[in-house]
Amino acid sequence: MNARGGFPYTVFPRIPGRDFAGTVVAGPRSGEEVFGTSGYTHAFTTNGFHAEYCVVSEDAVALKPKNVTFAQAACLGVPLTTASLALQRAAVEPSDCVSVIGASGSVGSYVVQLAQSMGCRVLRAARQSPTDVCIAEDEEFSALTSLTQGRGVDVVIDTVGMPALMKAAAEKLAHGGRMAVISARYGAELAIHLKDFYRNEKSLVGCNTLSHSAPKLAKELAAMSQALEKGDITPEDEKVWTKFSLGQAAEAYRKSEEGSGKYVLVMEEHCKV
Question: Do 95 and 125 belong together in one domain?
């Protein structure tokens, strides 16, 4: 989206690339294997990470978990920090019942894992298994009523951005329920039942990693590194991503525009296309 000029604050010409993983080659942390993400600077107002070398501040990187490959780590930044911040914005507690819309997606799958690691009961909503609510067959989220014995869920994390689904899920929130939204991909306007919202003290919050700095997001990643090493959070299998060399970046972007597949840019010696 940024490469297409989808963000008004991007200054062009600009090297894109928000997430990264690599080895520090100069500075006080030389030799460390690290990973990170852009925040609101890299790829927007300064060059991003689709390059062989990048300059970042010392506090904008986190140590790469030893059991995570460079390719896996390079795909963690935005989805993992978005998932973590969404749960924080929704003030999720271990006792909460959390429904995740788009639970099988990149962000949604990390929301599921993080919420489960907190001790929450998680109800997954997706168009494909594994799921507790099959969106393709139940766009009104009727299953949430029976799954919660009519009480409703404490939290909904929406990672899809489809207003009709958000409206239906909001109606399944329990008293004091919270909904966090990370996307408006399928529409920019949401109609909700205001009387239901205020009488049941429900709340709606947005979550945007571009509101945060690279050092702030590096702290988020560092806080989750131990959970990654322990296996409490499992990154996507490297085989899910098709690897392209840096010289093939334009082709990777073209394929991404076609709307299918996942792609990661790696340095030549690591690239197996």
Answer: yes
Please return the burial class of 25, using the count of CB atoms within 10 Å of its CB with bins 0-12, 13-18 and 19+. exposed
- The separation between CA 94 and the C-alpha centre of its own chain, rounded to angstroms, equals 20
Q: Provide the domain count of the chain.
A: 2
CA distance 131 to 195: 30
Give the sheet arrangement for strand 173-181, strand by strand: 133-134, 121-126, 97-101, 153-158, 173-181, 203-206
> Using DSSP, how many helices (H) and how many strands (E) does the chain show?
8, 11
Question: DSSP class of residue 86?
Answer: H
pLDDT (tens digit, 9 = 90+) per residue, 210-266? 999 999 999 999 999 999 999 999 999 988 999 999 999 999 989 888 876 899 999
- Per-residue pLDDT tens digits for 183-212: 988 878 999 999 999 999 999 999 999 999
Tell me which of 208, 227, 258 is where a domain ends: 208
For residues 35 and 103, membership in a common domain is answered with no
pLDDT digits 0-9 by tens, 50-75: 999 999 999 999 999 999 999 999 99
CA dihedral sign of residues 247, 248, 254, 257: negative
